[in-house]
Amino acid sequence: MNDVVLEVRNLRKEFRGVVALDDISFEVRRHEVVGLIGENGAGKSTLLKILSGVYQPDGGEILRMGQTVSFKTAGDSAAAGIGMVHQEQSLVTSVSVAENIFLGEEGRGVRGGVFRWGELRRMAQAQLDKIKSPILPKAKVESLTFAERQMVELAKALSVEERAENEPVIVLDEPTSVLEGDELEVLFEQIERLRKFASIIFVSHRLDEVLRISDRVYVFKDGQQVAVRNRNEVDTDELHRLMVGRESTSEFYHEGAQLSVEGNPVLLEVSGLSKHKAFEDVSFALRAGEVVGIAGVLGSGREELSRVLFGAEPFSSGTIELDGRGLPLRSPVEAVKVGIGYIPAERRIEGVAQGMSVQENIFLADPSTVSRGPFLDARKAAAEADRWVKGLKIKTPNRQTDVANLSGGNQQKVVLAKWLSSPRLRVLILDHPTRGLDVGAKEDVYRFIRELCARGIGVVLLADTLEETIALSHTILVMRDGVVQNRFDAHPGNKPKPVDLVEGMV
Amino acid sequence: MTAQTEPMATRWLGDSSLKDRLIAALPLIVLIALVAVVSAQQPNFLGMSNVRGLLEGLAPILLLAIGQTFVILTGGIDLSFAVVSSLSTVLLALWLPEIGPVAVVLVPLITLGTGLLTGIVVAVAQVPSFIVTLGAMGLWSGVALTLSSASTIRISEGYQAIGWITDMRIAGLPVSALIAIALAVIAAVAFKTLSRGRTLHAMGLAEKALLMSGNSTRMIRIAAFGMCGLFSGLAGLVLASSQYSGGPTLGDTLMLPAIAAVVIGGNAITGGVGGPMKTLVGALIIIVLRVGLSAIGVPAAYEQIVYGAIIVGAVVLTIDRSRLGIVK
Amino acid sequence: MSRSDLVSSAPGVDLRKIQRLFGTGGPLVALVVLVAFFSLASSTFFTLGNGSSLLTQLSILLVVAIGLTFVIILGSLDLSIEGVMASSSLVFVLLAANDRNDSDLGFLAVIAGVLTGSLFGLLNGVLHVHLKIPSFMVTLGTGAIGIGIATVLFGGRAPRLMDDSLRDLGFGSLGGIPKLAIIAVIVLTIALLVQRFTRVGRYGYAIGGDEQVMKLSGVNINRYKVLSFVLTGTASGIAGVMAALQLGVGDVTIGGGYLFTAITAVVLGGTALVGGIGGVGRTLVGAAIITVLANGLILIGVNPYVQVAVQGLVIVLAVAVTGWSLRKRVRAIK
Lengths: 506, 328, 334
Hints:
The structure holds three protein chains of three kinds. By secondary structure, chain A is of the alpha/beta class. Chain A folds into two domains: 4-244, Rossmann fold; 249-255 and 265-505, Rossmann fold. Chain A contains 19 helices and 24 strands. Chain A is globular and about 70 Å long. By secondary structure, chain B is mostly helical. Chain B has one domain (58-323): ABC transporter involved in vitamin B12 uptake, BtuC (Orthogonal Bundle), CATH 1.10.3470. Chain B is 73% helix and 2% strand. Chain B has 13 helices and four strands. In chain B, the strands form two sheets. Chain B has a two-stranded antiparallel sheet. Chain C has a single domain, classed as Orthogonal Bundle (ABC transporter involved in vitamin B12 uptake, BtuC), CATH 1.10.3470. Chain C has helices at residues 3-7, 13-41, 48-74, 81-95, 107-130, 135-154, 164-171, 179-197, 199-209, 211-216, 221-247, 258-269, 280-299, 304-323, and strands spanning 173-174, 177-178. In chain C, a hairpin with a 2-residue loop joins strand 1 (173-174) and strand 2 (177-178). The radius of gyration of chain C is 21 Å and the shape is globular. Chains in contact: A-B, A-C, B-C. Chains B and C meet through helix 5, helix 6, helix 9 and helix 13 of B and helix 6 and helix 14 of C. Chain C: InterPro entries: ABC_transp_permease (IPR001851). Chain C: It is a multi-pass membrane protein.
């Protein structure tokens, strides 16, 4: 077992009753590149955050060179020789590259509280030299491109080498999402070079890259480790199947309840819609009762598109028409006025108003049904709120409970009730509606989507997984780099396969 | 995400609810205790003439504090409100001799305008209100000083248009305080009964969720600052009337007691929690405290220290830490 | 649209150029223009006598503004400056030889005055950081406490400073340069070194730039935040003592107007109120602009109160302009 440099045994982590990591075991051997794949919410990020000391596990143990260790802070993890290259960049842009590389751990670069700039820059240069980067240590990070910043992140991660007595373990969390072409090749070269003296955990959603660079690949799904494969035993198709595979899918998604929308009138018509630096020339029509699913990875532009359709972000050209009338959509206020609703991915911040009651949340968008003139009809509001709580099976002590005290799934139902209670609602945009929900809550959300459609409401869906997208949608747009690559008809009985979609995504 | 997780856990356990309730009731308890202590020292404290004196001092502080409550509920602050009330006394002193009673209407409209302007800058430029209003404080103070040539202007001609504010009594009580209290009650009732009455609270609690539900947070913010400006002007009317003059710094000393009244009444500086009735209790505490301190022999010089300590202490008690990410 | 379009879209390249110009070059140009303008507009502006009085006026403002720069770089604010100056000035004068009591601590009184400021800074920092109260709120309260303490110490009549060697610090000059200005230069030098070479100086930029990242990197942010507030308080303490030296008395209103002018000076110099950008060096330029402006406008006969209004506008405009490009439809700024 001497060859195992980092091991995780039976790791468990819960967030407010939702299991994020369930009995995960995982090992990294000397000079090995380990791939880690899984869909959103599979538990990858949670594992990485535990390894970097940001989260504490609720159960299980971490072993470094066979010794049990516990990482209380990011510093502990770094001191044990684990270096992280974060997905969201973790550099302070207002200071220099050298300071960033050694932030808080300046070593010889600071003596007696006094910065020795020459020394600190030499030390930084040494790290940058490891990856043969021409970036200057004294450059301010804000003057660098994203790709260059990624290189600085790498240099920062490598600096754990000198701090720990053991060979480092470098964790690369989705490092390729902002890189392309030559930059990507540079990164792969660096990984090949790194493995001569380090072990690497490589997390990515690009399966071909994972297979190309990794010796072994771990597959995570719903907080569990579902498979480990050696590189030569597996191909991308199988990895994908392992990643999403689920039994009795059509029942789970209530596919039988999906209605045909042929002949239904067009509600929302988007033509040639562009947003500078986000997406370009997007066109589609949404019929009453139809679900249009938009698939794409982070950076595909679909998130921005959904926010533009709700007026939360401006667009640069093109038209959005509702019932044939053009909408300027200068703000969410205008969108709601014409009957467009939005269920945001940031549920706690943009979805529910925490600190306010379930009842107040339900009537936050449109109190007209429970108003008498400008005044609140308190009795009617209470009755209506109770009706929604009962109808959507919202688990809450009562309608006066602070919505912050509800679980994620029940909060999401409150957000749904907020839009459903408005008689104006015509179109609902769902941005990752099942993110962070447990299986039962997910199923409820799917059922509500079907019911929405039956009411003739049009739905634009940005789902967490391809499977969700395929099962729920009538039409699917696949986006990459801001452009619609493919369109699929996904009417009942005519569903495309996930691999068909993947082709256009990466 | 993690920052949100832990307070949630304690909420689930519910162990904070008793504490919350106690803190919510604290201002009223403090007020009653204060009155009891001071009455013990001064047996005639609750006598008619004394109460009348107390209430005469109440109106300007309460009006300023109610105005500030609108803004603080949204999670912002208007540091320029006291200076604006000073400016309004200067405008009154300059205009009463010229246009008479029209000035009484015009001046609050102008301060409504200065408030709306502040709100527009905060909402449109999206910059923190404490900085904008700090700047506004300098601006309006400079304007007031310039217009008045930095001196107090006595009001004689046209004074009758505002004289009633000080002189009039209803059931023996000064009308200014009664009007201020009535305004607090009206605002509280409006918050309670309007179908969008909790919008200001929602603004302080969850601005983004409010906007993403189709409410114009921009207009709400502008309106809140507008109300603050309007009430500052009303406070200016009371001040000018009771002082028979307008002065470029006449209302400035009310800034701290008015903010102290808002926070000690139980309005959370983080927004979303509180209301005009809490502010009323807070203003009463401040007024009783003023009289009470001198009753128990504390020199007036210590007043500032008390206000400072109240502001810090009350904010510590009412701030909602579970909502705070990074505090600057 | 290719992926490289998306990647190379590092936000605001042009904006940075603009900021660099106005952040460093711009204020300096403005200063030169102002000096040139007033030299032409007023015969007394560019004289030795006025130069010396300019330096004296600049000294105290500079010290206050330098101190303030440290917390503004954090993205915080210290509104207690005037109260701290008042307390410091009275503690100092009442401990030095004065016409109120028998105390005669000499230079120790100076230290006591300065330490009064440091203590206020410590109180501000601890309340802000550990009780998580917004800094402007804490310092609004402690500023009032400072004024209150000063009022208590003041006792109705301003105590006069009677120590001759200390008074010479306030009135005297060395080779034509006012001694107060020399003190200010020393403070400036120390501040520049602290900002460039110490953890509190460097981490201040990082905390102001991105506090979340700093937290993740395991740095004890709280310590450096508190230290920054101590630096600001200390500078206010020094300024309070300097003002007492200059006027020969300790007074409750001795800091009157400095808060406003100092914030304007810091902002004009190019230190952003959002934090992370700027520095002590820039504040020197900003303070010089304000001083020249104040002095020059009086020489050419402009009502001094108009300046207060203009300073207020400058603060609002500065935050609005620096923040303009960050505006979004969905954004909550309180």
